């Protein structure tokens, strides 16, 4: 697989307007012509390794796999809302402990909007 330099087609964030520092034509060129995926597809098509029929079969198979994954995921419980506060700090700072408690109190007091039975078991907040 050839190594290709990345080119960000989209803005950095919702507050970024990349048209201030690059033209629409530049973005279109990279998206359609110099995109590493498009270039690789052209290469393998020219070599006879790929064609429209294989692409259609591959897309159909990929869509089927994605839909099967969605169906499996829909039958699993959602993570506990408390998980929002995990895996960032070794020791959760006091102000985030306070936020977690306030959030969980709010969630528990509004069960019509936050059906916790659909979530994995929560720890003590």
Rg measurement, Å:
23 Å
Report the sheet with the most strands, covering strand number, pairing sense and barrel closure: none
Approximately what portion of the residues adopt beta-strand conformation? Answer: under 5%
Structurally, the number of domains stands at 2
Q: Can you write the helix and strand succession as a string?
A: HHHH
Distance between the termini: 48 Å
Number of H- or I-type helical stretches: 4
How many beta strands in the DSSP annotation?
Answer: 0
- Envelope shape: extended
Low-confidence stretches: none
**How confident is the prediction overall: mean pLDDT?**
88
Can you give the helix content as a percent range? 40-55%
Structural class assignment: mainly alpha
